[in-house]
């Protein structure tokens, strides 16, 4: 007969309820593998349960409440009491990770958080364990399923942003208040956590620049398609000039990029390093049962041998001005010399055109181009000058392009 392992559960919503059901279903099999049979020893919600009583009775605390407080306070108190903590809370870890990891180290307990980034995709484990010795150069991620679903529908069906968002809400892929998802903040929190692990330096959510998808038009997606490009909300963390850039923004990808074919509510992360070239992991990024499965995986790992998040060994400078290739969409009046003037203004900033499409006639003319990489500050300086040209019929629209392809 295996002994028991008591799990205290904080939160019984989408993830918490699915976790409780999965734990019960898998308890016997886990008992056979680990020698200990896990059982739920207490549940806390806003209306039931007492944290102190749950803590006293638990070997491990699962935090799936969300929000920063009281989740932070409960996690710290649990670890100080010598209990392992498993959390799915990206907002908490991206803002208070260093404090929490230090507490885990100090008290010799585990703090696991696989479900906080990319749901069931085991990217945290891979960075912390399999790639622990790799010198990671860059991470790209589609780490928000809601926005990936919306962009996929805009591309497939030519839907407007507003209609695609409505559809995502009707299908349960987007919350009633989708602000954190569509502004890029949710993805920024996840990229802060990934960057901290991959680059061994403290990264706070406030240091991640992010842009969302609210301003994207179906028109841009359709034009770029003709240039061989597909649009994604991409999180990037990469070494730049001895420092680190961590950012989230919509970006076009060419078809050969491993993230180009990641569609619908799926998540995926690519890790690049000289030694490994490129690894891509993909799978469902959210959902109660899926996330609960990642949480339960962490519980089982905590029942076996330790994995701690080591102290950071360096402090990389956060770099904000990086080189990017750009897609630029301009609605222009039909007259000679338009392309030459635009090219000249971009050229003054060091920009050069890689490909161009000119469409429509008269009042409907659009000039769409992809530029070779240049410093973002110089690109936007050029765009400001272009916006003032008298043949421009509306403000130019710019979206970054990721040029790498691996096939
Ligand atoms: N949903 C997903 O697909 C998903 C995916 C990955 C990660 N996550 C993360 O998992 C966590 C939980 O998400 P969820 O979707 O399961 O949230 P949810 O459905 O809103 O459930 C939250 C649960 O926590 C409880 N709770 C919230 N604040 C509390 C407080 N101050 N005191 C006591 N209980 C409190 C709620 O109690 P009541 O029942 O009384 O309201 C509810 O049971 C979040 O950190 C989220 O980011 C979710």
Number of strands: 15
| Estimated share of beta-strand residues | 25-35%
The largest sheet is: 10 strands, mixed
Assembly type of the chains comes to single chain
The ligands found in this model are: NADP nicotinamide-adenine-dinucleotide phosphate
Overall outline: elongated
Terminal Cα separation, in Å?
52 Å
Helix/strand class: alpha/beta
Task: Describe what this molecule looks like in 3D.
The chain has 407 residues and is α/β, with parallel strands linked by helices. Helices cover 38% and strands 27% of the residues. It contains 13 helices and 15 strands. The protein has helices at residues 14-34, 51-56, 71-80, 90-107, 123-130, 145-157, 161-170, 179-182, 185-199, 218-226, 288-303, 338-348, 376-387, and strands at residues 3-10, 36-44, 60-63, 84-87, 111-112, 136-142, 209-210, 229-240, 243-254, 266-273, 277-284, 323-331, 353-359, 366-375, 397-402. The strands form 2 sheets. Strands 6, 7, 8, 9, 10, 11, 12, 13, 14 and 15 form a 10-stranded mixed beta sheet that branches. A 5-stranded parallel beta sheet has the order 2-1-3-4-5, sandwiched between helices. A hairpin with a 2-residue loop joins strand 8 (229-240) and strand 9 (243-254). Helix 1 (14-34) runs parallel beside helix 11 (288-303). It is elongated, with a radius of gyration of 24 Å. The chain starts with a strand and ends in a 5-residue tail after the last strand. The mean pLDDT is 94. NADP nicotinamide-adenine-dinucleotide phosphate is lined by residues 11-16, 44-47, 64-67, 70, 88-90, 115, 119, 286-287, 291.
């Amino acid at each position: 007969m295996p002994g028991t392992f008591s799990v205290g559960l904080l939160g019984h919503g989408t993830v918490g309820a699915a976790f409780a059901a999965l734990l019960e279903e898998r308890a016997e099999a886990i008992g056979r593998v680990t020698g200990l049979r896990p059982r739920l020893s207490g549940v806390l919600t806003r209306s039931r349960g007492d944290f102190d009583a749950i803590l006293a009775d638990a070997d491990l605390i699962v935090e799936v409440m969300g929000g920063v407080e009281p989740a932070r306070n409960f996690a710290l108190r649990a670890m100080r009491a010598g209990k392992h903590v498993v959390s799915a809370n990206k907002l908490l870890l991206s803002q208070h990770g260093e404090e929490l990891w230090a507490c885990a180290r100090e008290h010799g307990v585990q703090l696991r958080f696989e479900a906080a980034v990319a749901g069931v995709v085991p990217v945290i484990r891979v960075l912390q364990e399999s790639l622990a010795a790799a010198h990671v150069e860059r991470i790209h991620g589609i780490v928000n399923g809601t926005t990936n679903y919306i962009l996929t529908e805009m591309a497939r069906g030519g839907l407007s942003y507003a209609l695609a968002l409505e559809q995502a809400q009707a299908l349960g892929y987007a919350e009633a208040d989708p602000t954190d998802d569509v502004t890029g903040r949710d993805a920024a929190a996840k990229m802060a956590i990934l960057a901290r692990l991959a680059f061994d330096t403290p990264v706070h959510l406030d240091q991640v620049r992010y842009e969302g998808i609210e301003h994207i038009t179906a028109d841009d997606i359709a034009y770029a398609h003709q240039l061989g490009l597909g649009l994604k909300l991409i999180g990037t963390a990469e070494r730049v000039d001895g420092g680190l850039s961590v950012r989230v923004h919509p970006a076009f990808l060419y078809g050969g990029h491993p993230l180009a074919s990641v569609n619908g509510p799926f998540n995926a992360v690519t890790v690049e390093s000289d030694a490994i070239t490129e690894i891509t992991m993909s799978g469902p990024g959210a959902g109660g049962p899926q996330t609960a499965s990642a949480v339960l995986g962490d519980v089982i790992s905590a029942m076996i041998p330790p994995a701690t998040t080591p102290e950071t060994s360096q402090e990389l400078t956060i770099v904000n001005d990086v080189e990017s290739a750009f897609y630029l969409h301009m609605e222009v009046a039909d007259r000679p010399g338009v392309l030459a003037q635009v090219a000249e203004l971009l050229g003054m900033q060091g920009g050069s055109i890689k490909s161009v499409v000119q469409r429509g006639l008269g009042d409907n003319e659009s000039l769409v181009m992809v530029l070779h990489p240049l410093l973002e500050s110089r690109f936007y300086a050029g765009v400001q000058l272009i916006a003032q040209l008298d043949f421009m019929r509306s403000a130019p629209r710019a979206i970054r392009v990721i040029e790498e392809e691996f096939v």
